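Q: Could you predict the 3D structure of Protein STRICTOSIDINE SYNTHASE-LIKE 4?
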Amino acid sequence: MARTLTDRPITCNWGILTAILLAVSLQIFLFSSSSPGVLQIPPPSSVLPAPSNGRLQEVIKLGEGLLKQPEDVAVDRTGVVYTATRDGWIKRLLRNGTWESWRQIESTSLLGLTITTDGAVVVCDAEQGLLEVSEEGVRVLVSHVDGAQIRFADDVVGSSDGTLYFSVASAKHSYGDWPRDMVEDKPHGQLLTYDPSSNVASVLLEDLGFANGVALSANEDYVVVCETWKYRCLKYWVKGDVKGQTEILIDNLPGAPDNVKLAPDGSFWIALLEIVPNRLRFVCGSRAFKYLIRGIPKLGHWVVGAYNRAMVVNVGSDGKIIRGFDDPTGKVMAFVTSALEFEGHLYLGSLHTDFVGKLPL
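A: Sure. Here are the predicted structure tokens for Protein STRICTOSIDINE SYNTHASE-LIKE 4:
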């Protein structure tokens, strides 16, 4: 029986589809640099320490429309609020309530920032390293460590003696390739220190599960570093008899920790990301799906629900959750990445807003 005209395109299309799938498979299995295995994901707590309260829907929107995805917030000794935006600006809120576009950096990957004791702003450029920003201009403080280029500088905090502590989310994967880090069987995050007197950076901790926020304790005797993929925050001692030792500050958090900030009372504010636990566990336990994300990193966004919710928790120095605030639907605040307490208010950074949130406490 003769083939009809409608049969031929179908056969041809299947051939093209097979060729495409083969090409994608070769790209994934032969040319991807990840080494997927089975990464152990701890079970997060399922709930906040109290029922959802929607408090983050009550924020005052500072600089609405002027700030593109302000990931982090810092305050100097005069009360001026600083933030770094996705379009490369360091912007600041002056005491008179006006916003100033202070310094522009040729970058789309500015993340955590801090104010040094001499009043300079130090900001993490995920791709360039640590940058110091002052009235005189911008200069690179650290771009390499142990001879290797910093691939994903994330957050930074400064001590009273000028020492900087900062995180590298992944020593293997860059800012735009974070999903590939998620499917690695071996974590690549680092905690580092920078000594301004010697101009030398060194590694304090390695093998962290996506090292994110960093904060110093009230006495500056330990550094808190957040491990996003592991739903926990660690304490690394930098002073005293236990100097160089590490312990868990808090684990099994009700979300994946992003930035952490010291509060005036010595506790910590931690911004939590909504990463869908079942999806993350499926991805990290499925070799086939991990290989797929290796070749198509954008598929990694499937496990993140941060655009639909926001959550922050206040954790004591003893590791116990004191209180928590959320926006359960992401109606006002979503993807909150930092929470800074200042003068009775909580200032909130986010990768999904065009404003900094200000919440009365």
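Q: Anything worth pointing out?
A: The chain has one domain: 40-360.
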